[in-house]
Amino acid sequence: MSSVNYSEKIPNNVNLVSDRTLQRALEHWQPHFIEWWKAMGPSDFQSADVYLRTATSVDAQGWATYGTVKMPDYRWGIFLADQQAERKIGFGDQMGQPVWQQVPGEYRSTLRRLIVTQGDTEPASVEQQRLLGHTCPSLYDLRNLFQINVEEGRHLWAMVYLLHAYFGRDGREEAEELLARHSGDADKPRILTTFNEPISDWLSLYCFTYFTDRDGKYQLKSLAESAFDPLSRTCRFMLTEEAHHMFVGETGLGRVVKRTLEVMKELGSDDPAKVRAAGAIDLPTVQKYLNFWCSSSLDLFGSEISSNSAANFANGLKGRPDEGQYEDHVLRSSIFKMATPAGIEQVPMLNALNEVMRESYLKDCEIGLKRWNRQIERAGSPLRLTLPSSRFRRTIGAWAGQPVDPEGRMVSKEEYEKKLYSWIPSEADRAFVHSLMHKVVEPGKMAAWIAPPERGINNLPVNYEYVKLH
Ligand SMILES: [Fe+2]
Ligand SMILES: [Fe+2]
Question: If you measure from the C-alpha of residue 344 to the centroid of ligand 2, how many angstroms do you get, rounded to a whole number?
Answer without folding.
Answer: 35
